[in-house]
Amino acid sequence: MEKLIFYICTFALISFTVGAKLGSSTEHYNTCLTENNVSDDDMFTVKGVIFDIYNVFLNESEKQENIKKNGCVLQCILEKFGIMEGSEYDVEKMRSETIPENIDESTKLNMLKGLNNCINETKDLTEKCEKSFNLVACGLKSKFLVYFDLIFQGVNITQIADTRFISVL
């Protein structure tokens, strides 16, 4: 019974988090929306990105336009955190800011592996908004898989989830 309650609480936390808009949990969200002339309605949800929902409901031109808008807001947020400058990453800062400290080495290595994979997948992209969106989308999918695996191992992820960056990367 205890495990059932634990799983329900954990899934409730994840459901709440993945329903949030990309980047909305950061202090720079509203500033970056304004700077990029993007509305909150234009932003995808974390869930929408993790499960590629925008690919289903938008035609190709709408999809590209919304990916660009989302990417530009995300690039602005990442730049304000010092993780990006233009279309270039500060890889070490990205690693230190997006991997929670209070996790075991195995989980940390899995997260680093996922992050490194995302960096490698996006490193040759030159357009900063496209690069930012693809980096964040890849990072969210990677972290989601790691957290999902931890849940089934019985780990209480509410104590390790880094909520400051969960909606960014």
TrEMBL record:
It comes from Temnothorax curvispinosus. Keywords: Behavior, Disulfide bond, Pheromone response, Pheromone-binding, Secreted, Signal, Transport. This is Pheromone-binding protein Gp-9. GO terms for molecular function: pheromone binding. One of its GO terms (cellular component) is extracellular space. CDD domains: PBP_GOBP. Transmembrane segments: none annotated. Colony queen number, a major feature of social organization, is associated with worker genotype for Gp-9. Colonies are headed by either a single reproductive queen (monogyne form) or multiple queens (polygyne form). Differences in worker Gp-9 genotypes between social forms may cause differences in workers' abilities to recognize queens and regulate their numbers. The gene is LOC112456896. GO terms for biological process: response to pheromone; social behavior. Homodimer. Its main location: secreted. It is found in: Secreted. Residues 1-19 form the signal peptide. Belongs to the PBP/GOBP family.
